[in-house]
Records
---
Amino acid sequence: MLQPTSCPRLPSAFASDIRNFAMETNIESYLIEKRVFKPAKEFAKKARIKSLAQYQKIYRESIRRPETFWAREAKELTWQKPWKKVLDWKAPFAKWFIGGQLNLSENCLDRHLNGWRRNKAAIIWEGEPGEKRTLTYQQLHREVCHFANVLKRNRIRKGDRVIIYLPTIPEAAIAMLACARIGAVHSVVFGGFSADSIRDRIADSGAIALITADGSYRRGAVVPLKNNVDHALSGGTTVKRVIVFKRAGNEIHMEEGRDVWWHRELEYVDANCEPIAVASEHPLYILYTSGSTGKPKGILHTTGGYLLGIYSTMKYVFDVRDEDLFWCTADVGWVTGHSYVVYGPLTLGATTLMYEGAPNWPEPDRFWKIVEDYRVTILYTAPTAIRAFIRWGDDWVKKHDLSSLRLLGSVGEPINPEAWMWYHKTIGGGRCPIVDTWWQTETGAIMITPLPGAIPTKPGSATLAFFGVDAAVVNERGEEVGANVGGKLIIRKPWPSMLRTIYGDQERYQKQYWSEFKGRYLTGDGARRDRDGYFWIVGRIDDVLNVAGHRLGTSEIESALVAHTQVEEAAVVGRPDEMKGQAVVAFVTLKGSASPSTRLKAELRDHVGIHIGAIAKPDEVRFAEALPKTRSGKIMRRLLKEIASGQNVTGDTTTLEDFSVLAKLSEEE
Ligand code: 7RM
């Protein structure tokens, strides 16, 4: 049935085939990627997992006996009291390491102080205006202990919720670790969010304190964080205390009896603070993510399992070494920032690089300048950033020596094969493995990913499941589908770093994630597996198109468009159509040198027709200056769907990065 034909204009490894599936419920898949990149021998030799066979052996064991696998890993962490039972699973409620007690900040800090790592850099930070700071493990430990005492002095106790509204500065990590040290539950709110978002999150979490800064820097301008906080708190909330770090020096109002300065408070307390032992299931943080309905969901993570998830993935996926400099470019306000800027690297005793600002400030080579200046060895970033770098042009990259890089990572969206190839060649110099890591706020840690010394990669595929992760692609009836048949991505077993609930809404937790297939976790993503069992994520299920009875994932059509020489980014959505059910509408942004024309529209439609098939040909191509994105860079197809069908945009737009984009898109007709 599979009859690949070679494609004239795409790299020869691309092939397309059209198939007709009897089962309409499945997502069909047409774009077949043939390129395979094996781990280099030199890389594999030094890696923790050195071959596909070794991965497969451990993976099989980890699925047969997950508790044995996780218990072995968990022994590498520091426990104040050992656990009695590894897992208590009463679907959909999991408890990991029952009876065990530990402290997360102790695992990130204290345990590295006994040996030489004491004087190793824990955090290397660069502010957007260019300031540089380095904190060794010893120094970071001291700062965290000192600030933990400030929290206590301000009557913050174990179990209390604390909002952290800070930019990506060391104090964000210090505040998070200080909360963990005393057992307070933090909820980081991204510094780009507005007063309304802060107010909603305070109300939902019942936070009693808030930690912020006067301001932060973004593209040279000062973001008035404290002002936003004042607005959020006006009219009264549960917040009794606001601790303000002086960052930008902008003028702010300090509310008598409520607001205190971070640096002043430090003067009243000493820097000795023992890490308290909390139960493994003690809440660590709540992180809000936007739900499709608008009401933000507070994803709750607990201590032991979460720590284990990030520890193991940091160790095997990034294969971090003492001599590495690890740079995850995410803001601390996202789960990626929690797991792979702060907690993951520190748990391993690695050096983490933090950068406060925008990738194109003051020039589009800021990232490459940082890589060169600090000799970054592992870079972990998002497809949206990679596509922006492609648009800005290779000259910005070529100005810099990137030879220190040895491993690259991608997260946040499916990475289009063309963007993958660019990342591989232009950034990685053809020598660095790429780990395309699939996971979610809810999963806490990476779930589907290559292991860089073991698993051959294919551009656009997150490859195989991580140890202990029982991922599968199923149809509407919950049956696993065959090779290259699309379906819903589910996880069939509990895993340590899984969310425990939606804060304050147990019912929504059960309904949203565990009701469609009983006892199985519904990710909400569509996917297929190829003949090698590799996972290809095709987008959110809600975004799947149904064209004349064919269910099409958005990512393949988008990838075909992005493979066209003049296209920078593409987002594909459905518009109601009387004949076909849904018509395919493609929003396209062009590279600097290209200009919109009717001819180009026709060419792009044909291009998709040739490379995927007539069924996927966009009925309409719309050129746009920019696409609506969340502040973490994900394309908001929901908004585009409404625009494509001529409706007004409704629902939650608080996560939208740039509102002017919407107006421009609607004008485009
Ligand atoms: C880490 C993060 C989760 C959603 C997820 C997917 C998409 C993330 C990938 C990906 C394809 C990837 N958390 N997603 N990583 N899709 N390949 N490697 O992004 O909660 O903000 O988003 O992001 O749809 O469900 S998140």
---
Amino acid sequence: MPRKIAAGNWKMNGQRENLRELQRLEDLHGDADIAILICPPATLISACEDTPFDIGGQDCHSAVSGAHTGDVSADMLADAGASYVLTGHSERRTDHGETDALVAAKSVAAIDAGLIAVICIGETLDERESGKTLNVIDTQLAGSLPDSANAQDCVIAYEPVWAIGTGKVPTLEQIAEVHAHIRARLNARFEDGDEFSLLYGGSVKGSNAAEIFGVANVDGALVGGASLKAKDFSPIITALERA
Ligand code: 13P
């Protein structure tokens, strides 16, 4: 069985005072038997060392070290206490022009550093409306997911770009179609394709989490806005525990 993961991506939000939200979350879910992953800004990773939750970076460089001003390597994230890192988030692909090849290189660097890479893929609204969703997923999966990956060191997050931060969520049928497609592609390529955790991301909230987690091949969520406050993230975690 793929592991269930409730993941929160804080994006460029959060300072030390916001770590009290993790304490609140620990009071509620400190002994959860699913994986709870928090990806705070890199500046807060080492300050999270006492939390029982898994901690992840939001990006890493593809190199181990070197002359890359402003960048953070996967080894540095691991050294700071991270065990996961997001790669290829659509905001990185858009804001920083990240290509599938770069995302694959970053994912290899993450795995080499002992991190679990959460590789993000998803179509834009234009791509969905012109019927290209599954083609885009195929291209991104083929290009971003390294051949050396396996289910222990990689997670796939399907995040339709048009659903991120918009309050718009695909229908359950649309989520089911894409997740089944990803599963089939993983099974065709990897012996342990059935074991990869597949997360859905894009406007997940307490009010829609349970129905999303009821969709086949959805093993968890990658949550943005609703992960910032314990009171908003907690019902999502509870829904995943019950799924
Ligand atoms: P929202 O949950 O705010 O839509 O963000 C999703 C996301 O981008 C998580 O990586």
---
Amino acid sequence: MIWAVVPAAGRGARFGGELPKQYLDVGGRPLIAYTLDALLSHPSVHGVMVVIAENDRFWRGMDAVAGKPVLTCSGGAERADSVLAGLNALPDDVRADEFVLVHDAARPNLAHADLDRLLDLGCGDPVGAILAAPVRDTLKRAGDDGGIDRTEPRERLWRAYTPQLFRRMQLSRALAAAQAAGVAITDESMAMERQGLRPLLVEGREDNFKITTPADLARFEFVLSQRHR
Ligand code: C5P
């Protein structure tokens, strides 16, 4: 049985507006409710630690989803600080060498089939694994003037998604080491890679997208409208 840490302490500045994106209303529910449903409806997920901002005015309070515990703790300035706080706040009976999932609050369209594959392959890996998808567009390197300097090869380039699956203590140590070194970490895998470890890439569905722009939100609303037909 696996616990998930869900960082939800971002202020969503890139989305615009005051309401952080994880609390945007979608069909009468906050976006994060769909993310928690996706995780907790999976039989292997035992509980979730939601990391919210200090003085969060928007979290509606939730003790359980699908009869499973939903705990909360306070996050930090950067995403990595929030994840580290979440790992530290997990119940004591989550052992140091146990695998935990980390999943963005703003990634509501996680499919069970993806989680199945991540857990199957990741729990068999000495380090752990992440969901990801290959880069399909041609990549351009921009110059200062907005012109194209050159085309970058896209072979072997992947886009990192969440969930990401690592052992509780190993991930805590890797995040703390990055924090101490003042290195900005954009996902958990990056912290592990800095330790010389090589997490496994597990190809996931392209529709496990992160809500970042209004267009992403419209896409998720469309996905939901198709789900209930
Ligand atoms: O900003 P970005 O889209 O990378 O955020 C990814 C996830 O990390 C979001 O769910 C956001 O709420 C969370 N986050 C956090 N603490 C921060 C910044 C972001 O928990 N300080």
